[in-house]
């Protein structure tokens, strides 16, 4: 009977050290993979949020300038310009408006119209003065998010052409 008890005791022992080390190694590798997937998901979410912020600002700026240029007389000379000088025709009277790039911000008559979170790297106006036709302005804009890490920053290029309705 003693012999049988020893056999039962040998069989009821726990894991060996090798089995325990293998189990820990497999668990560690699995957890490392899960953590890496989680980190990539967070980075992707930040990049998406950055892109959304830049796109929203870009759309707002382009729509604001396009609306004003469309209902204005373009005073800037033809060709490529760093600034745009227009005369906005409003119900309250004519208003002189100048768009320019300064310190990474787009200024309208000296007041920033872009968010402080956004860096404007390029603002160019290509003016096509039509002889007898409507004047046209092409606006080229490059924006990026300046508050994110470089690998998470979103950068977009926008371009639109607006024809002036003012005669």
From TrEMBL:
The keyword Transcription does not apply. PROSITE patterns: PROKAR_NTER_METHYL. The keyword Repeat does not apply. Keywords: Membrane, Transmembrane, Transmembrane helix. Pfam families: N_methyl. The chain crosses the membrane at residues 20-42. InterPro entries: N_methyl_site, Pilin-like. NCBIfam families: IV_pilin_GFxxxE. This is Prepilin-type N-terminal cleavage/methylation domain-containing protein. It comes from Candidatus Portnoybacteria bacterium RIFCSPHIGHO2_12_FULL_38_9.
């Amino acid at each position: 009977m003693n012999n049988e008890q020893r056999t039962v005791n040998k069989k009821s022992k726990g894991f060996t050290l090798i089995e325990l080390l293998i189990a820990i190694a497999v668990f560690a590798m699995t957890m490392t993979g899960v953590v890496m997937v989680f980190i990539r998901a967070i980075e992707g979410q930040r990049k998406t949020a950055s892109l959304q912020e830049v796109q929203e600002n870009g759309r707002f700026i382009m729509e604001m300038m396009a609306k004003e240029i469309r209902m204005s007389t373009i005073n800037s000379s033809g060709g490529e310009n760093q600034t745009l000088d227009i005369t906005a025709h409003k119900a309250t009277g004519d208003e002189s408006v100048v768009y320019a790039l300064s310190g990474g911000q787009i200024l309208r008559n000296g007041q920033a119209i872009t968010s402080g979170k956004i860096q404007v790297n390029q603002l160019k106006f290509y003016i096509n003065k039509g002889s007898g036709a409507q004047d046209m302005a092409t606006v080229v804009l490059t924006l990026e998010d300046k508050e994110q890490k470089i690998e998470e920053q979103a950068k977009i290029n926008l371009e639109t052409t607006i024809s002036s309705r003012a005669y």
